[in-house]
Amino acid sequence: MINRPTVNITAPERAGRVILGLVTAAAAMVLLGAASTTPLVLLEVLLLLAGVDLVVTGALGHCPLYSKLGHVPQSLRRS
User: Fold this and answer.
1) Where are the domains positioned within the chain?
2) Residue 56 and residue 66: Cα distance in Å, rounded?
3) pTM (two decimals)
4) Strands of 1-79, DSSP E
5) pLDDT per residue as tens digits for the range 17-40
6) Given its phi and psi angles, is residue 67 left (phi above 0), alpha (psi -120 to 50 degrees) or beta?
7) Which distant-in-sequence residues (6+ apart) come within 8 Å of 17 by Cβ?
């Protein structure tokens, strides 16, 4: 049985992460096609990875950084 991490991202933030991540990843792919030097390629790969990270964390509803910092949005706190 797989332990699924707890949801620590609100629904509006999840939607925003997925949308922003898709836009970021798409922009990185377009820019990657036009990259001419190694530093530009590396920066655009990093941009692509950042977009993928946003999509994954938004889709799962769990942000590992929030967990490390102990952040839980007010609307998700249990009394």
Assistant:
1) 12-71
2) 14
3) 0.86
4) none
5) 999 999 999 999 999 988 889 999
6) alpha
7) 9, 54, 55, 57, 58
